[in-house]
Specification:
By secondary structure, this protein is an alpha+beta fold. Among the domains are: about 75-255, no CATH class; about 475-655, no CATH class. Helices cover about 50% and strands about 15% of the residues. It has 23 helices and 21 strands. Strand 2 (about 90-105) and strand 3 (about 110-120) form a beta hairpin. Helix 2 (about 15-45) packs across helix 10 and helix 8 (about 275-310) runs parallel beside helix 11. It is globular, with a radius of gyration of 34 Å. The chain starts with a helix and ends with a helix. It is found in: Cell membrane.
Length: about 800
């Protein structure tokens, strides 16, 4: 029986090759995109899942009021340790680290590396894969270091670097600290919970005990160090809510009143931390892509149903004869389902080939390495097979049972073979398809518009031709600042460099903050995000001054100077002239305002412009970047700057990027969504138009005699074309009326995640409508042209 079903199904597929090819292409496109999104979602949700006791692992987050008091991912350094020591019935283990970046060297090799200064238990606590060394005792002593395999390979040419010595440059003059590598771990994914603080992740892990990086000992011991990332492992049965009371008690016991009143420690599950980090950016991305992939699969299913129900009317006599000879409805339905499953199976195989072919491209679009089909797990293969089988059933179920219900006598006579058979159903399906395609198309258009708005909006500073160097050596004292200033002056001698500035932050985020008292003597200080830079920061970034000068630009350094932005001036009561006014901190420090810079976006457009203060780097020595404004950013210019850098800062790596690249990195998720939405739009339109092509082809075959009669009676090509396009015009109009309100609502919700966003406008909606209508017109015209030109006698003489 099964063999017979397959044989007949194959014959019918071969008999109507063009319709089979259309269904095959639509299903394979849908399967391929669904497979891509499925693999992407699986990979994103698997982040951090490999850690030991993952269900009990939590990362500490700081809910600060106001938010600008510090970053949410850091908290007081001793907090997690004190939690474990004073509440051992709640906390089983803890791990903390202080993130830094500096030069790590061995022999003649020197590289800039991200370093985690932390506790020595993280390898055993999380069960990290150790390639070389003892997993249960990764650190032999306080002078031992754990490194990643990629670092070992880069530094020593081999992953097995056990026993080799590395030297970590500190921020203290002429001080390096030597460490002996005691373990080499497998590289952690960039989005691992261990990589908080630096997108690239950490490659070197050293103990806090005996550490000399800052010159004052272990940075994990001081309650004033509010820059540590901490994680805890809870005891069995303990929930984060059980730590609310103990957390408040610890803050009350060890921190100043200001912290107690404005800081709440929260506990985020490590297992899904990556999905919810950064305001649920990844979770939103997954949701949007999932909805789009479902839309595309549904359109492929609808195409199959539409074409199959229209084409099935050619087989009514076959169905009638089967019933006469004793076939039951379920047997006839199974015959049609078998054809659907065969096409779905072929589509699934083709989808695997398409996936493997397009995998590198989709990896770039989604910003992650998509695994090869040859590396799928058994569960992934099983899931894909189930999806193919389910889609095959959904696509074939309606045509199968619809045809099987037809009456025997009517079927034998072949009367269902009319042009209008099932017309209402096909129209509804086409409306749904058009609505989905228009919805995705409008969404992609607005996403593109928002991305264009982001990259073309006046942010208040100029990011073009800015080369950002990682400032080495990091010597955070007055002598270190003088050394970097000498390097800066040396680079300014190059004809390619027009200006340069030394700073701790760039216009991508501001990590620090200071408390300033308003001039009206209000007792309540205002938390103002702040960082240090030099007098050339404003000129290099082309900031616009509202009044005064940028830290007395081009004049001698005067201690205690500060520049504020317009928002800070307004909040501090300095709307009517700020230059020369003095601002105080609750601790008694005094700053003199030298200028007010016009508001600019010192973070992303997701955030409204906040108050900002910039102090001189000589007042608070600490720097990370040396930014150069270039006349032109050519390979030759970069080479000459590198050559000069090696003369001025010998032994230090030449690490650089360009500000426009850093700006683009801020909007990585938007750029990924733009590419994914554009891809989805193209795929959905291909599926819809293939479906329209198939349905029009069937209608033309059914109405060939009608067209012939119309031609005999004098109808021209335009009349015949209008006959078909009128019907689709109404369908497209109804689809637009359905999709426009939905698109407006969902896109408005997405745009609300930005403080600054483009207006939707009617133009995008109207443009999409006209594009869809124009493409359908071209498709219908192309398909009807051949039929309209045929000799009407040829159609009329055969009955």
């Amino acid at each position: 029986m099964l063999k017979n079903y397959i044989k007949i199904a194959w014959r019918n597929i071969v008999k109507r090759k063009s319709l089979a090819v259309i269904n095959l292409l639509c299903l394979s496109i849908g399967f391929c995109f669904a497979l891509v999104i499925g693999v992407y979602i699986t990979q994103q949700k698997s982040i951090n899942q490999q850690f030991r006791n993952i269900a009990h692992q939590y990362i500490l987050r700081s809910n600060r009021k106001p938010e600008d008091m510090g970053t949410s991912i850091t908290n007081p350094a001793p907090f997690s340790k004190a939690l474990k020591e004073e509440y051992p019935n709640l906390v089983k283990n803890y791990y903390r680290y202080n993130p830094v970046t500096n030069v790590v060297s061995a022999g003649d090799q020197s590289f800039r590396e991200n370093i985690a200064i932390g506790d020595t238990n993280f390898v055993s606590m999380y069960g990290l894969p150790v390639l070389y060394g003892n997993p249960e005792r990764a650190f032999d002593n306080v002078n031992a270091a754990v490194v990643t395999a990629s670092f070992a390979k880069k530094m020593f040419g081999t992953e097995n670097a056990i026993g080799k010595t590395i030297a970590v440059q500190t921020v203290v003059e002429h001080v390096k600290q030597d460490y002996t590598i005691s373990a080499v771990i497998k590289d952690l994914p960039y989005n691992s919970v261990f990589n908080q603080g630096y997108f690239e992740g950490y490659t070197v892990f050293v103990p806090g005990i005996g550490n000399k990086y800052y010159g004052f000992g272990d940075p994990l011991t001081g309650w004033t160090n509010n820059s540590c990332v901490a994680m805890v492992e809870l005891q069995d049965g303990v929930l984060p809510k059980d730590l609310i009371g103990p957390s408040k008690q610890l803050l009350a016991k060890y921190t100043p009143d200001f912290f107690q009143k404005n800081l709440t420690v929260e506990y985020a599950a490590v297992k899904d931390f990556y999905l919810h980090d950064n305001d649920n950016a990844v979770e939103r991305m997954i949701t949007i892509l999932s909805i789009i992939s479902i839309f595309i699969l549904m359109m492929a299913i609808f195409n199959f149903v539409n074409i199959s129900t229209a084409a099935a009317t050619y087989r009514v006599r076959e169905i009638g004869l089967r019933k006469v000879f004793g076939s039951k409805r379920v047997q006839i339905a199974l015959q049609f389902l078998m054809e659907a499953w065969l096409l779905a199976l072929a589509g699934g195989v083709l989808a695997l080939f398409l996936y493997e072919t397009t995998r590198p491209w989709f990896s770039g679009v989604l910003g992650t390495e998509m695994i090869s089909v040859w590396h799928f797990r058994v569960q992934q293969y099983a899931g894909f097979v189930l999806m193919v089988a389910a889609i095959g059933f959904l696509a074939g179920a309606y045509p199968a049972f619809s045809v099987a219900r037809s009456g025997t006598a009517i079927s034998v006579k072949g009367k269902p073979q009319t042009a209008n058979s099932g017309l209402l159903f096909r129209r509804i399906v086409l409306i749904v398809q058009f609505s989905m395609a228009i919805l995705v198309f409008i969404g992609a258009a607005i996403v593109n518009k928002q991305v264009h708005f982001i990259f073309n909006r006046d942010t208040g500073y100029n990011k073009d031709q800015l080369m950002v160097l990682t400032a080495f050596p990091k010597q955070w004292d007055s002598v270190g600042v003088q050394k970097m200033d000498a390097i800066k002056q040396g680079l300014l001698q190059l004809p390619e460099v027009t200006s340069a500035t030394l700073s701790f932050d760039l216009p991508d985020r501001t990590q620090g903050a200071m408390n300033l008292l308003p001039v009206n003597e209000s007792a309540r200080p205002i938390v103002v995000p702040s960082f240090v830079g030099d007098e050339d920061y404003g000129q290099t970034f082309r900031l616009r001054m509202k009044e005064g000068n940028f830290l007395n630009h081009k004049k001698n350094f005067v201690p205690g100077q500060i520049v504020i932005n317009e928002t800070a001036a307004r909040l501090l009561g300095l709307d009517n002239g700020a230059v020369g006014k003095q601002l105080r901190t609750p601790e008694g420090a005094v700053y003199t305002v030298t200028g007010v810079v016009k508001d600019y976006n010192a973070a992303t457009l997701r955030e409204a412009i906040k108050p900002l203060a910039i102090c001189h780097v000589k007042d608070a020595p600490g720097y990370r970047y040396l930014t150069l404004k270039l006349k032109y950013a050519t390979a030759g210019a970069v080479a000459r700057i590198k050559q000069e850098w090696q003369k001025l800062s010998p032994g230090n790596p030449f690490e650089y990027s360009f500000m426009d690249d850093k700006f683009a990195a801020l909007y990585k998720s938007e750029l990924q969504l733009k590419k994914a939405a554009t891809t989805a739009t193209v795929l959905s339109l291909i599926i819809v138009f293939l479906g329209v092509f198939g349905v029009v082809s069937i209608m033309l075959m059914k109405r060939d005699k009608e067209i012939a009669v119309r031609k005999v009676l004098g109808a021209g090509l335009a009349h015949i074309f209008a006959l078909f396009i009128t019907e689709y015009s109404w369908l497209i109009l109804i689809a637009n009326l359905i999709s426009w309100p939905l698109a407006y609502y969902f896109i408005s919700q997405w745009l609300k995640s930005y403080a600054y966003y483009t207006e939707q406008g009617i133009s995008a909606y109207v443009s999409v409508a006209f594009i869809i209508f124009g493409l359908v017109c071209l498709l219908v015209a192309g398909r009807t042209f051949k039929t309209a030109l045929e000799n009407p006698v040829k159609s009329l003489r055969n009955e």
